[in-house]
Amino acid sequence: MLHNVSYNNPKIDREISKEVGAVLTLKERWKIKGSGSPKLLINSCSIQIHNLMVLDNNANSCNIEIREKGIVLRFRSLLETYALPIPYYKLTIYKGRAQEYSIHRDNYFVKVKADHKRIHKFFEKLSQLKLDQGFEFIDDL
Length: 141
Known about the structure:
There is one protein chain. By secondary structure, the chain is an alpha+beta fold. It has one domain (3-133): Roll (PH-domain like). Helix content is 28%, strand content 32%. The chain is built from 4 helices and 8 strands. The chain has helices spanning 10-20, 26-31, 47-53, 117-132, and strands spanning 3-4, 40-45, 61-66, 70-77, 80-87, 92-94, 100-105, 108-113. The protein has an 8-stranded antiparallel sheet. β3 (61-66) and β4 (70-77) form a beta hairpin. The model has no long low-confidence stretch (mean pLDDT 91).
């Protein structure tokens, strides 16, 4: 669910933390070599996000923050900041074209342009973290 995080609201902060976990500690961020994505340009998005993006004439961009149990996708529209928390079990990442990644959660999606090597490395790291959070199978024991 989209949240307006422009203003300090403890209730919304608790909901986001409950869904995707707390912010990573400094030690954990060093271990995974950073918890934030570079600036991601949005190619297309779901209708709920698109309705917010068309309100201004700025370039549509977003960023991703890695949390303990998921990610938080943030973007700005007008002077407001919106957050879409996505737990790992609901996170789906597609690589449709060579220069595009698609991030899905239920009926929300965002397709971002991947024109730099560091963006590809970030999504590789994100995919690996998602795999590490998965369930263990009996065959793995």
